[in-house]
Amino acid sequence: MTALAWLIPAALVLGLLGLAAFLWALNSGQFEDLDGASWRAIQDSDAPDASPAADSDVTPHDAKR
Amino acid sequence: MDKALRSNLSLAGERELASATSFNAPNLKTVTLIVENMRCGGCMSAVEKALLAAPGVQSARANLSAKRVTAQYDDDATDPEHLAFVLKDAGFNAAEAIGKSEETQANEVSDLLRRLGVAGFAAANVMLLSVSVWAGLASDMDTSAQALFHWLSALIALPAIAYAGQPFFRSAVGAIRTSRLNMDVPISLGIILASGMSLFQTMRGGDQVYFDAAIMLTFFLLVGRYLDESVRVRAKGAAENLLGLKALSATVIGPDGRTRRVPARALSPGMRVLVAAGERVPVDGRIKKGTSEIEESLITGELLPRIVHDGANVHAGTVNITSPIEVTATATDENTLIAEIARLMQAAEQGRGRYVRLADRAARIYAPAVHLLGGVTFVGWMIAGAGWETALTYAIAVLIITCPCALALAVPAVQVAATGRLFAKGVIVKAPDALERIAETDTVVFDKTGTLTIGEPKLVADRQIDTSALAQAAALAAHSRHPYAKAIVRAADARSLAPMSRGSVREVAGAGLIAETPQGEERLGSASWAGADTEAGDQNATLWYRKRTAAPIPFHFEDTLKLDARYVVNDLREAGYAVELLSGDRPHAVSLAAAASDIQEWRAGVRPDGKIRRLKELSASGRKPLMVGDGLNDAPALAAGHASLSPASAIDICQTAADAIFQGERLFPVLETVKVARAARHMSLQNFAIALGYNAVCVPLAMAGFVTPLIAALAMSASSIVVTGNALRLRTMRLALQSLGTREKHE
């Protein structure tokens, strides 16, 4: 019986961890684009350019065409 | 509009300045753009890169499932229209998304998903405890451990049910308030009674504890509800994308005479709008200045353009052909035709609101039966002298066993599989009960122009016209945007003729084209314009070409059928459908199309109210018409039909009215939709049969008092999994129209 005293809380804590992870994923929008997410994983450079300043300085005329 | 004005007033130099200084005080705004042809990961990153390279864009994030991209931009440096233009440059068809309704719906989906997660967590943990109890019953678990496990189950299950079960409770309360019965009433009752009795038994140290069954039930039902809702939101998003891409922009003439482009939805009555030749009219209005020809096939179904002068009314969605016109926008209800159509649609839609879905019809019989069985069990055991507590326990066991888990999953699971299958084939099912209504139809009523036909004229019997005459006519026709002129140019292209260009060609609205050369004049146009004698000659010819003083040559046109029209009509008829053609076009053109597509029953020159009248006649004679149409004149009929389909090329009012929209140049999606709808109904009934069969076995056991919590949990899960598995077969099944086993040619 003493084993139950820590086995049951352990099971509950593990379950709650899973639930917390799921809720975190849901709130951070991980389920919003299921098709796109599978593609992003295999893209070479998925990080958008960190400095938009450089971008708009270099190409404003081309892009405005 | 205000923003468009501001961005336009700002001079180019100011813009440069704004883009250079935007990092000091950027005026950030967020816009969602629809990107039609974003289909893979490559497109996705191309879209994001293109936007990020544009000046003033701070961030861009594409959503491949929704085919949309959300961008944050500096309002002083750029505007949504420019961003759409940037994407067009990169090869993507893009437009600003309209309507925020999708956002709240997406929130509903993630709300369901959150409840589903909680229910899943609780179900897993309660099952963990329950399995131990069941195992303990067979071996040496003592009662104190059993009580502990029951209390723990209660602790997990009760809050989870209270939270996760809310969608069902709310819907049940709503139904009872309006004194109706839907599936959620027996569901809620089952869940609440099961939880309540289990809590009571736990407090008394009994073993009839059903927390596992109650939470599993909630979990399975939420799965069904979530799938149903997410498919619906996806279909709705796709339908909104179609409309968004059709949205027009308009050239507005300001009070100072300067012109600017604004989105058509920003137009308000009284504005002066310039419509260039070849452009779609963006708004209902009255012509202030100019004479032109307007092609109104989306409104009337007729391809022959109408000549309009100052003061004439023009409708949004029509195409201005000959020359630029200036239109004063009018309010929609000022406009008699549109107002009439809206009134007809409203009247027609009321009839459909009364439709009761299959699952709710089942609930009307099922719910009273379940409650009666529970009552009978209670009274029976009381009479047998079992005492009120045992009698109540058994009665509640009956309610739990009959709780329509399988029944409530049976229909949503099929709906999800069916709409998913149709979505993959380019059919967007919008109305939640559309498939059920389509499955019941037995008559298909087609509109002609744009539905049965491609919606553009084609030169017929062009082999009889000699090559040089065709080349010369095409040289004239190349100067016009008139649909018939374009057909002549296409015919010349098909024969690889290279028409000589003419120097001075004039187009006279409503008459034709004229080229004046030193040798004499050439004319292409109506009989009187070309000086043809229609009494003696060909009366059905539409255009005539006359070179100098030679005899005029007649040109005939017809609107070509969609490639598979005849085949689809045949297959529908073989499957027992009556097929009809209702068109607003002239009798001659309609009879040709009817003959070519093998439809015997046709009517021409039918006005919108005439279409409704015909559909009412059909309904009165006991038939259930499926209306397929695309024009403004079809919109009331689409709302009046028992069910309705509309092609993606249809005018937006039709897409809104139709139950489902099909994409592509062909007609076979109509056939596929009917097939899938019928198969879905068959499958739903099959699932009902499975659920009833399960009840037939378990209910007597429960009434006799043999049901233990273990049996309840097993039966509940097994029946749910069986009906869901059965429904999923629909995704891959080969389908034939059932009544006659027609051959499957399209798969």
Task: Explain how this protein is built.
The complex is a heterodimer of chains A (65) and B (747). By secondary structure, chain A is an all-alpha fold. Helices cover 69% and strands 0% of the residues of chain A. Chain A has a domain at 1-28. Chain B has five domains: 1-97, Alpha-Beta Plaits; 105-237 and 357-416 and 678-731, no CATH class; 247-343, Calcium-transporting ATPase, cytoplasmic transduction domain A (Distorted Sandwich), CATH 2.70.150; 425-454 and 561-677, 3-Layer(aba) Sandwich (Rossmann fold), CATH 3.40.50.1000; 455-559, Calcium-transporting ATPase, cytoplasmic domain N, CATH 3.40.1110.10. Chain B contains 26 helices and 26 strands. In chain B, a hairpin with a 5-residue loop joins β20 (543-547) and β21. In chain B, 50% of the residues are buried. Mean pLDDT of chain B is 80; it is low at 1-23 and 739-747. Classes of the chains: A mainly alpha (65), B alpha+beta (747). Chain A binds chain B through residues 1, 4, 8, 11-12, 15-16, 18-19, 22-23, 26, 31-36, 38-40, 42-43, 46, 48-49, 52-53, 55-57, 59-60, 62-65, and chain B through 16, 19-20, 22-23, 40-42, 44-45, 48, 52-60, 62-66, 77, 82, 86, 89, 106, 110, 113-114, 117-118, 121, 124-125, 128-129, 145, 148, 152, 156.
Concise structural overview:
With 65 residues, chain A is mainly alpha-helical. In chain A, 69% of the residues lie in helices and 0% in strands.
State the oligomer: heterodimer
| SSE topology string of chain A | HHHH
Low-pLDDT stretches of chain A are 48-65
Question: What is the strand arrangement across the widest sheet of chain B?
Answer: 14-26-25-24-15-22-23
Measured by residues with Cβ under 8 Å of the partner chain's Cβ, the largest interface is: A-B, 37 and 44 residues
SS content category of chain B: alpha+beta
In the predicted model, the low-confidence regions of chain B spanning at least 5 consecutive residues are: 1-23, 739-747
Radius of gyration of chain A: 23 Å
| Gap between N and C termini of chain A | 77 Å
Count of alpha and pi helical runs of chain A: 4
Shape of chain A: elongated
Major beta-sheet overview of chain A = none
Mean pLDDT of chain B: 80
The radius of gyration computed from the alpha-carbon positions of chain B, rounded to a whole number of angstroms, is 32 Å
